[in-house]
From TrEMBL:
Pfam families: Fer4, Flavodoxin_5. GO terms for molecular function: 4 iron, 4 sulfur cluster binding; metal ion binding. The keyword Iron applies. SUPFAM superfamilies: 4Fe-4S ferredoxins (SSF54862), Flavoproteins (SSF52218). It comes from the Bacteria. This is Ferredoxin. The keyword Signal does not apply. Ferredoxins are iron-sulfur proteins that transfer electrons in a wide variety of metabolic reactions. Residues 180-209, 215-237 form the 4Fe-4S ferredoxin-type domain.
Length: 254
């Protein structure tokens, strides 16, 4: 079983790729989190947790969902983390989560994919994004093969700065940066409600036909990157920046 959380599709792409190689199924954590669904899960085999990297760790919303959900009968747990650069010392916290849940930790794999966090960084142009995805295939195939053969991933090398990023910086990141008050919509909005549907935390509502953001946000960037009219902005930080989601890479029009 592959449990997958994904904002703009990178982790979903990786999860589906691995599922195809393993003949396994992908469980959509976005929907489970959105619906507060913590019903017990019996894995009956290998468990893969595919997520993006948020401030050098798996997203807090994923950690919280796993902590609250009874997950049994696993033959080891492999973490596959997509990132724009690197995952820092995320492995330490994945190990701790597994120890808390009584899971057999089998390692963490790092898969570099196109950047989507336009609240802070620049997403790549489409040609660069396509190349990054193409370059990721070898690492995804390697991860899938190791999981298939029930081999643990190689321990990731970490530096002092990695430990600081995944520790102190991650702790500060959420209260300081993960806020939704900077989101706003321009006159290009058509009120389609796609942002409402995609938000895994039910933080976006339509009011008089326009989206309004609440205070419960995880900065997955689904709302801003999937807006069909690019009508959503995040203060001045997103203005003029390309939006990225995985479907753009495979759109024949691009």
């Amino acid at each position: 079983m592959i449990l997958c959380f994904s904002g703009t599709g990178n982790s979903r792409y990786v999860a589906e790729f691995i599922a195809d190689k393993l003949g396994d199924t992908v469980v959509d954590l976005n929907e489970k989190i959105k619906n507060s669904d913590h019903s017990p899960i019996a894995v009956n085999g290998k468990l893969v947790i595919a997520t993006p990297t948020y401030a050098w760790r798996i997203p807090r919303v994923v950690t919280e969902w796993i902590e609250k959900t009874d997950i049994t009968a696993t033959n080891g747990v492999w973490f596959v983390m997509t990132c724009g650069g690197e995952v820092g010392n995320a492995e330490k916290f994945n190990k701790l989560l597994c120890a808390q849940k009584g899971f057999d930790y089998k390692g963490t794999a790092q898969i570099v994919m196109p950047e989507n966090y336009i609240a802070m960084f620049d997403a790549p142009q489409i040609d660069e994004a396509k190349q990054i995805v193409a370059n990721s295939i070898r690492d995804i195939e390697k991860a899938a093969e190791q999981i298939k053969n029930e081999k643990p991933f190689k321990t990731l090398k970490t530096s002092l700065i990695d430990k600081l990023y995944s520790g102190i910086v991650n702790d500060a990141f959420y209260p300081v940066f993960v806020k939704s008050k900077a989101f706003y919509v321009t006159d290009d909005c058509i009120g389609c409600g796609k942002c409402v549907k995609l938000c895994p935390l039910n933080n976006v509502k339509l009011v008089d036909g326009k989206p309004v953001w609440g205070n419960n946000c995880t900065h997955c960037m689904a709302c801003i990157c999937y807006c069909p009219k690019e009508a959503i902005e995040y203060g001045r930080k997103s203005q003029g920046k390309p939006r990225y989601h995985i479907e753009n890479v495979f759109d024949n029009r691009n």
